[in-house]
Amino acid sequence: MTLASAQFVLSIAVVSVVALLCWPRRHRVLPLRVLAINCTTVAVWSGVELAAVLAPDARLAYAAKLASSPVLLVLCSGLLVLSLAVLDRGWEPSRRLLLALAVVPAATAVAALTDPWHGLVLRDVLWRGPGHEVKVEPGPLFWVNVAYGQSLVAYSMVRVARAWHRSRDSHRRMLGALLVGSLVPVVARVVWYLGALPVDATATGFTVLAIAGYLAVSRNWIERMPLAHQRVFESVSDAVLVVDGGGVIVDANDAARRLARHLRPRQGGELIGAAVDGLLTGLAPPEHGSAAHTLSDVWGSGLDLHVRVQAIADRRRGAIGWTFVARDITELNRRRREADQANARLAQANAQLRAQLATIEALRADLAEQAVRDPLTGLYNRRHLMERLDRLILDAGPAGPRLSLAIIDVDHFKRVNDAYGHGAGDAVLTALARVFAVDLGIDDLLARHGGEEFVVLMPHTPAAAARQRMEELRRRVAAAVVETDGRPLRVTVSVGLASAAGPVDRAALFQAADAALYRAKGAGRDRVVADRDTRTGPAGAA
């Protein structure tokens, strides 16, 4: 294998692995989704270039070289989209932007298909036999494509470089890694054009960029919880900033952007990715709880601000971010100095401030609720289930609680995904979550355990009553019809049930329910199978 073909083979292997690593988190982190698509595009481009190198004759090498031009332009557009997604964490690509970026690659593809008649893309190829790099004699459209692609890459790198200059800590390291990774294929291409390299190392450069991009985004990207009440967030008249653990602004409402334009007019209202110290300097966020600050004549603008800082806490890691609520109190201070008119207006301002703080508190509570919810079904997640079960065991003391636990598995769920697509699978899970929630006891807890598995925790429920309820649930599921894109689907579930009355070992309880579930599946599915009572004493399993 020659050096020319070896680098394309290596590039295909590495970027394919990176794409597979990015794909599972594509719905939660937009940059990883874009990076996965870009890696796929690199693999396609490397495959086409490898076909040109291994072509048995000049005619096939010429066709492969023509095919690589539009693919390379698609990759340049993907790098632009990646930079936009990294710089603005709330950004989503619009359909208009994607269509605009597709125009030039599509036109290039048409030109490549008709190139044998006009020779505007490639005038000729220099083919030296299979295994050797294919050199081309470019036409005028080839250089137009080069200029267009390099312009997209240069624009992306300039934006990333400017954001890198303004950022700090983990966000700065991520942008720096992407910037350096983007330079590698550009430098490799330029050096090859100048004749300093024996082969074109652009594929190797793209491989380095894929690895650098994945390491930077996956290690430093903060997967923020969605704000369920975005309209409320934008309607707050005070300036609201959401800041990550490194002091970088990750979200801001319109009032905050207007405040930024007023305080720092030369920098405009762009806030996402900037350091909060660059706007509200001198504030020390609390590690826990909240703190209030009054800033006078901020940046010499004549504005006085009242800023309330609220920590967004995680039980294990402490503060993972903060909310800054800044209220313009310039006029309020003036009215306070005019004592004869201040009392009524001050009371009104305080009432409005309390209302705003109540809104922010409701928003913070919603963030905390989202942390224990499954984003697809809205049910509690596995983490909350385990915490609730541990509290039940702890509160019961040595006597142990009386409870039942059921693991519910959707029968043949993979067939639904394979036959109708993952969108239909998601619709089935969402519909079943609604069916499961019917007639839940006041103390019961329904959670999504993972994949197509659900768990129902039933405190103070003996085995017989739990089995009767699970049988009723199974019948409701069998009778339900799920509509997916106008197609009715029916599914069934298998249920494994375990009960305990006495000292409980959590792992043993789940193992018993899981074993019962496997027996239900082995017996033909669409049934409830109960395990014997699961008890653990001081010496182990009874």
Features:
single chain, 542 residues, alpha+beta, Rhopdopsin 7-helix transmembrane proteins, Beta-Lactamase, Alpha-Beta Plaits, 3 domains, 5-stranded antiparallel sheet, 16 strands, flat, diguanylate cyclase activity
Task: Explain what the structure shows.
This protein is of the alpha+beta class and about 550 residues long. Helix content is about 55%, strand content about 15%. The chain folds into three domains: about 5-220, Rhopdopsin 7-helix transmembrane proteins, CATH 1.20.1070; about 230-370, PAS domain (Beta-Lactamase); about 380-540, Reverse transcriptase/Diguanylate cyclase domain (Alpha-Beta Plaits, 2-Layer Sandwich), CATH 3.30.70.270. The protein has 17 helices and 16 strands. α1 packs antiparallel against α2 (about 30-55), α3 (about 60-85) runs antiparallel to α4 and α6 (about 140-165) packs antiparallel against α7 (about 170-195). The longest helix has about 30 residues, at about 340-370.
